[in-house]
Description:
Helices cover 16% and strands 39% of the residues. The radius of gyration is 22 Å and the shape is globular. It is built from three helices and 17 strands.
Amino acid sequence: MFNKILRHLLLAASVTFLLLNAAHADTKKEPMWPVLKEIYFENKTILTDADDWLILEAPSRAEDAAIVPLTLKSLKPQTAESYIKNIHIIIDDNPEPYSANFHLNPAMEKVDLTFRMRFQQYSNVRAIVEMNDGSLHMVSRFVKASGGCSAPVQKDPEAVKSRLGKMQIRMRKPEIGHDIPAQVMISHPNYNGLQFDQETRRYIPAHYVKTMDVTYADQPLFSVDMGISFSEDPSVHFTFKPTKSGVLEATVIDSKDTHYTADKTI
């Protein structure tokens, strides 16, 4: 009996020791950003003074780590002389930190973008703005969310197959010469290779949206290079001002090189 009690005590002590070590390791974890900066930006100068002209909205604690909403708003208009050329989205502690690149055109005039991302663990999310003059500026927020990258897709697999690639363009009643809030969305599971299928006991192969291009009257508004951090059913809210009648068109290409399109005449 004594030996049995002693074994239990030793086991409990060992588990406690491991947990304490793990907790200590978490507190001592080295920040990823210096390494990521060197990898993706070759240690170029990135100014951290962008808060006065770019807003990054993110929940401090996400309700669902698989669909964390992020919003980017510029406080200065886009002009031909000075405009945001790219917005690089970095989620430091995701399996693939470089999460998206928004390529912008001054024809948008106003940067007002909302999209949803997956977070695998508590992490800083960064928006690094690349201006047309090449200068880099950064805003960041810390988001408490975990398990989003490996979370299973919410819909039934058969429903996913039946709706795969269906696209919508939503907008309020458009008026020429006025700002129009719009949304492009596509039904797509955005499998990132990290979700586990409980029936087959295997990981679901990656199959995700790679790019989204949006044009109006044959003029580019923006495009997005998407990575595996985008949520299922990717969507982008944006605002644009049409100066003449035309067609708003969105083209999506996924990792199997399948093309999907949707359009709306204004």
